[in-house]
Amino acid sequence: xxxxxxxxxxxxxxxEWSGSLHQRAWDDPTFLAAYAVExxxxxxxxxxxxxxxxxxxxxxxxxxxxxxxxxARDVVGARDVVGARDEGGGEHPVLVEPAMATxxxxxxxxxxxxxxxxxxxxxxxxxxxxxxxxxxRSCQECHMPEVEGxxxxxxxxxxxxxxxxxxxxxxxxxxxxxxxxxxxxxxxRVAEVGHAxxxxxxxxxxxxxxxxxxxxxxxxxxxxxxxxxxxxPDGDERRQVGDDRVPAxxxxxxxxxxxxxxxxxxxxxxxxxxxxxxxxxxxxxVDMSTDETVMSRGRIEDTK
Length: 304
Fold this sequence. Notes:
Elements: H1 3-9, H2 11-17, H3 29-37, H4 41-47, H5 65-69, E1 70-71, E2 74-77, E3 95-96, H6 107-110, E4 111-112, E5 123-124, H7 125-130, H8 139-143, E6 146-149, E7 152-155, H9 165-169, E8 172-178, E9 183-190, E10 205-211, E11 221-223, E12 225-230, E13 237-243, E14 253-258, E15 267-274, H10 278-284, E16 292-300
Parallel strand pairs: 2-3
Antiparallel strand pairs: 1-2, 4-5, 6-7, 8-9, 9-14, 10-11, 10-15, 12-13, 15-16
Helix pairs in contact: 1-2
């Protein structure tokens, strides 16, 4: 079965999927730049699962309809429906698989080891979810919310995540206060999110920064994963040596920002999501000034 066959009948869902992060999994310029540096097969297996190789045109479909909804020759769905009843009017049998509505269905591409396994996983979103206060909710509830259609409700296939500013803002609860005339403490906790913040790719990070009324900037604090290089005869590996992301279990993560001179009130602070740091951005050709999302911001009006 081809993805085009699915989209021909399921036109509204196909339109949602088109342009989504799943559909752009291979064509994303940042991924392609990273893949050019490290062309590992297991990267291609998740970013272009329908393609036989890097020359296969199906790579541009990314994670497509058939990736999730076709097993062997069966069309699989999470609900007991008769078949496709979209604009095309076609029908086909559907093998009902309740597991498709659970977070476990997402695990194969969103939790996996490094090429050379270590204590930390290369991505650990599902493990983080199991430690979250929202573990009873599936990934689909947040990233595939139900939407109304001509034939009833269905789960959206635009796969909301970065780029959805409201969704990103709901992920964190942030407070800030002064410690003294040179220090500000920003406290972050997860809110409406079922995993660590940020999750997924190992380079993703939060930057906590502040500036006073006179334009003096504090030294920013970066929250993310830390790695060292370990040399082997058959090649180097990244070894995780630290992780100070905002944890999924609700524990606070505190960032203390230091000003060289006593600050002038008010102090404006913000928490920014970045897909990578400056070293990786330089390698991959990413403009960091345009590749970030402000997740939270506020003002400190007085000192303790």
